[in-house]
């Protein structure tokens, strides 16, 4: 009787589509890690001396973790621990600055014997949980500035500490939480203004400050003309003018600050990476090397790809960090457009289904958490794939479920399965 | 809250971003030909160019470690056509079985190997390569790649230089910038200066057409990377002196270290038994024999062995006593075959000599009794409230001479030796229960004191400089190779410069006052003004260790030497002639007529098997 219930329950309540996609992604990732580390003499995919063998162990661990989160841990547990968990992870984030060895300039890894992990990975989960918990409280209103400030602080605090760890790339992921805030009632103007600010910044460093100023003026004019004509009330008209002028002023300030930000605030390597993306610099042997190699690998794949384990770029290891940050190149080279299309469709479906499940949830906590998961995954995917395609500057963050690395695989697994568990809980009582 | 609208907007945004990525992929992978040539499985191949490793010179520009050319034979199995196995085996100096076995392996793994080029045979000599090159057209798919091997034109250095070997899987794990098949420095200078010596690899990119034939270079070579040769290292070693030192030490166990006092540059560092450079060149084959040898030839005793310094340490005690004001050069102490340090009459023995002696003569004759009185007056100085307090002060003074801590030389395996802390004695004897008689053997450099040969050579340099030293080092600054600025800084001891001549007088007499009972007459070379101090340190494993430090000439010293020979008896017997021969060779370039006999005795004697 009992078993019967459980069986029916499992089938109907767990969103198996997500689990199938998850498994497909980690398996395809693993197969590609093997191809990426394959060089010289062939060895087995389970060879523990290589990244592919180690990834097999990490994957086994990830599946165990997923099962724990889904079947053993009570889903209510997550909301109840979110505050202390957030605090502990924040402390770890700070401690790691002082206690870690310098890995390529960043201080973000704890090393316990052979095990290394980045608290920044955990912090995405705890931040999402706390954000979901705070924002799902009855009475939380996004247009109350105190409430908004609290939500913003929850996101900015870990983000700033991670910047202090010199892991600017990981910190950038946190900007994705703006989508969650938007979904929960933040005005869409913030998204529009943020987008405009990025464009303005690029325009200023790419061309001249006076061109940017003209653009600011034109945008302001268009905005005023459009909205003033549609706003009959005098009081609201005044507000339109005031908001427009304030935004324009901020834009002008950004134009004049751009040069300073670009040359003084950003570190040299960060500036150079941006210059490469914007085509201001073509340093094929230095900073632009990775991206150029990555493009050769992806581009040479063509429509059908060169075939598994037949990529010349891949097997000779000319793309650095190929099993981690540049794993997408391997897909591009060996599986061609067909392969990259498949990967992007898989991620697209994963995000679509998470958002759909989240929207269907009755509990606000589940909904908001679902959006947090989707936003983090989206940021990683966009930055990582954008980087391999030369659309984004080189930022060393992994492709979720795909890149080599235990700590990121486990963190993303736990993050996703908490959502699947919460979602299952929702459906249990229907 | 009506939010469906927002959710839809976000999903539309997501869709647009994904479409943008797909659009870019479509462009890069299908439309733009810049990243490929044809859809017909055309591909790029890269040919690696290995840079020559930096070479190593001695201080006078003599080549210590050079490169010689050898070849790796590579094969691209896909390009191989049928060929005569036996003929190839003969051309490459290998067996037909080997060739067959490799080809079978390539066949078994053909799908994994694809278009890759693999190494078929490693390190083929230039001679063999020439034979192969003549017939190369018979073996499509095979080609040769230049590699460089180490070559040692001069038999000097051995351990000091270190050896290189192919990277191990464990090393690759921690060093992602190396690839299987690369070489790296395992020990010695090769390891310490790996970053400068290795250079960086380059490559040429070629296009391959659909039949796998190499066509012209890709993008006119725009993406080719030139190999950057490794940087050359100039050492402070004097190759000729080093070689002479190795000859002198042949058949003896121990070390000789020579330092230029005015710079801290190590002129010679011999650890014996060591390894000859011809062993170094073919290290892989000798490794197991060497690592099992009970005399441990792989181990650099000069920095990694610590011994009691014996009587040479009396110099330090004397200087500390002078600086503290508890010892004056004119003070005389009696010694009748030793110093009685307990009421029950326990005695620290001494050899027979006239008595009493002043400081100068006590140094000259290395009187044990005298220096017991010296340490007694340091530790029982009324300025301090307890032996412990006085001891802490003494230890601080001694450590300023570079003892009991790492000197900071550029040898990664340098040991610190040991000057026991007051806490050590507090634990061992309980606090307040140890006094001067308990630790009387420190007076003569015995007991718990341990020093490395490098540290006592540094003591010789301190004596030569009258009170300071430069941290001993073996790499000189040269173009593209920087050394730590600390090597240019004078390190002062806590003893005033003005105290030094009082002790040095005794060191001069020990060598040069013939027939007055000096212990180091064996080091006398007319006109060189060598100043020295012998030592005989107890060795629990057999005969005493023979120790000698010296510098020369007395004014403006050019060289400071320490010799430490295990189980060789009195300092005067072996260490003294060895060190003085080295000094003579360095300052004069040859050994004088009268000393040839000493030289012959040293060169021919074998103290170990």
Number of strands of chain B: 20
Number of helices of chain B: 21
Strand percentage of chain B lies at 15-25%
Assign a percent range to the helix content of chain B: 25-40%
Q: In terms of topology, how is this protein built?
A:
The complex is a heterodimer of chains A (430) and B (609).
Chain A: H1 2-13, H2 16-37, H3 51-72, H4 76-99, E1 110-112, E2 115-117, H5 119-135, H6 145-164, H7 168-173, H8 177-183, H9 188-206, H10 209-230, H11 234-265, H12 268-277, H13 289-299, H14 312-316, H15 327-360, H16 364-388, H17 406-428
Antiparallel strand pairs in A: 1-2
Helix pairs in contact in A: 1-17, 2-3, 2-15, 3-17, 4-5, 4-6, 5-6, 5-16, 5-17, 8-16, 9-10, 9-11, 10-11, 13-15, 15-16, 16-17
Chain B: H1 4-31, E1 43-49, E2 56-57, E3 63-75, H2 85-91, H3 96-108, H4 110-113, E4 118-125, H5 126-135, E5 142-151, E6 164-166, H6 169-174, E7 183-185, H7 188-192, H8 194-198, E8 202-208, E9 214-217, E10 233-235, H9 239-249, E11 254-260, E12 265-272, H10 277-281, H11 283-292, H12 301-304, H13 314-324, E13 338-340, E14 347-349, H14 359-365, H15 368-379, H16 387-399, H17 422-429, H18 453-465, E15 468-469, E16 475-476, E17 491-492, H19 497-512, E18 531-537, E19 545-552, E20 559-565, H20 575-588, H21 596-604
Parallel strand pairs in B: 2-10
Antiparallel strand pairs in B: 1-8, 2-3, 3-4, 3-5, 6-7, 8-9, 10-16, 11-12, 11-20, 13-14, 15-17, 18-19, 19-20
Helix pairs in contact in B: 2-3, 9-20, 13-15, 14-19
